[in-house]
């Protein structure tokens, strides 16, 4: 390993639950077999380049707190120093994947052509590093929300020149993702929404967004990209109201524009919370419709009203998320990306390693608990019992009947509507047995 930001940190290893080493795995053993598959192959961990390496530690009330060897991030020399540190970090953690936005990995140029040259140079640098390493690309994406040009959206922008710039940007990012063997390509509509309806044409903006996503799919097939196209729901932040509000909203959007057979969802824990949902709710909604693609695993601070992107530490929440993922058949091209960042007081290189090690352990515990619940079958049995009445011939016949026939049956006294307990507390206690 070359001298770098992480030079004095040894690779993280599985040491078991009794270890007191803060930089060792206590529960994540990549080779442990869970439900017939290696734990690493179930979880498919990825490091997010933006929060782990590009973020400088600022918040809405204060600026940069991190001082990294690649700061300021404004030239190609420092972009390569950052890449060196990134791949050292991937080696230390032993993760199989990483993810990036274009703006995370290259400095912004004064023209589109200059930005593209910078981008292509760093992609070449990545390709060289990936030749001799285990790590692969889970997904790439374009940052179309930070620069001022996208203050009014990208594909939904009222200015057609911004739509064009957005299309050119996504093309280059898809080309790079394809070249690096990416498993997916993600679109997160950070500013695809509105601040006020006083200056917003909803119909036009949604149609343009639908056409843009159709172009993405068309280009995928043109270049022979075999990965999955994913969209990522979020209800607000930075826009007041975003068009990709939650899983159900995105599913309706995909169906409206005939894209439900081409595009799946990348779901984030923090975004689910902002939408007023639990993470398992969003996963279950996507899975029910066959559109679960991948996840960003993080958490929000429940005392704050914004997207704090903290590393996961709640095993029961994580267990329920993986329960629904496993029930849906597990990941195909998707995985578990840590879209999470350090607290701005956590300044050291060790903090970055410890945060990921702890999060990977939490996910490992959650996965094992989820698998144990599935193998035990208690929740499935409870569902079968609760809905068992629908398996009768009379109940199925009712679905093929009409209101008049049902009315006469009820009026005759053949049916009594006595409520039965949902037994929620017993089921919650059941889950706690496994976590």
TrEMBL record:
Cofactors: Mg(2+)
Compartment list: Cytoplasm
Primary location group: cytoplasm
Keyword Zinc-finger carried by entry: no
SUPFAM superfamilies registered for this protein in UniProt: Xylose isomerase-like
Keyword Phosphoprotein assigned: no
The organism's place on the tree of life at top rank: Bacteria
Cofactor note: Binds 2 magnesium ions per subunit.
Residues involved in Mg(2+) 1 binding: 232, 268, 296, 339
Subunit structure: Homotetramer.
Protein's name according to its UniProt entry: Xylose isomerase
Protein encoded by which gene: xylA
């Amino acid at each position: 390993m070359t001298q770098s930001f992480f030079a004095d940190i040894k690779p993280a290893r599985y040491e078991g639950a009794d270890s007191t080493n803060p930089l060792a795995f206590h529960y994540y053993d990549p080779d442990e077999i869970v439900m017939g598959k290696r734990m690493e192959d179930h979880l498919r961990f990825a490091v997010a380049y933006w929060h782990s390496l590009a973020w400088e530690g600022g918040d809405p009330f204060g600026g940069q707190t991190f001082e990294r060897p690649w700061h300021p991030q404004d030239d190609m020399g420092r972009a390569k120093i950052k890449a060196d540190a990134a791949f050292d970090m991937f080696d230390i953690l032993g993760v199989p994947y990483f993810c990036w936005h274009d703006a995370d990995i290259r400095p912004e140029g004064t023209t589109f052509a200059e930005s593209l040259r910078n981008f292509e140079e760093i992609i070449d640098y990545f390709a060289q590093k990936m030749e001799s390493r285990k790590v692969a690309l889970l997904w790439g994406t374009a940052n179309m929300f930070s620069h001022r040009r996208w203050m009014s959206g990208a594909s939904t922008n009222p200015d057609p020149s911004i739509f064009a710039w957005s299309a050119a940007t996504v093309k280059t990012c898809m080309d790079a993702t394809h070249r690096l063997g990416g498993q997916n390509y993600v679109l997160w509509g950070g500013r695809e929404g509105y601040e006020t309806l006083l200056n917003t044409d909803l119909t036009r903006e949604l149609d343009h967004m639908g056409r843009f996503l159709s172009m993405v799919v068309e280009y995928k097939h043109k270049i022979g990209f075999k990965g999955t196209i994913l969209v990522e729901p979020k209800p607000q932040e930075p826009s007041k109201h975003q068009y990709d509000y939650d899983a159900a909203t995105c599913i309706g959007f995909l169906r409206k524009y005939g894209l439900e057979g081409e595009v799946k969802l990348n779901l984030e824990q923090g975004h689910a919370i902002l939408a007023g949902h639990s993470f398992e709710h969003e996963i279950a909604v996507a899975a029910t419709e066959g559109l679960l693609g991948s996840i960003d695993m993080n958490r929000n601070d429940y005392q704050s009203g914004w997207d704090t992107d903290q590393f996961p530490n709640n095993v029961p929440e994580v267990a329920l998320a993986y329960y629904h993922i496993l029930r849906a058949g597990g990941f195909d091209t998707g995985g578990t990306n840590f879209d999470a960042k350090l607290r701005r007081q956590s300044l050291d290189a060790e903090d970055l390693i410890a945060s990921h090690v702890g999060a990977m352990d939490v996910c490992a515990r959650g996965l094992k608990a989820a698998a144990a619940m599935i193998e035990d079958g208690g929740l499935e049995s409870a569902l079968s019992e609760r809905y068992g009445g629908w398996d009768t011939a009379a109940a199925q016949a009712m679905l093929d009947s009409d209101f008049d026939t049902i009315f006469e049956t009820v009026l005759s006294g053949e049916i009594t509507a006595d409520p039965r307990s949902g037994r929620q507390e017993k089921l919650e206690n059941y889950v706690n047995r496994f976590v």
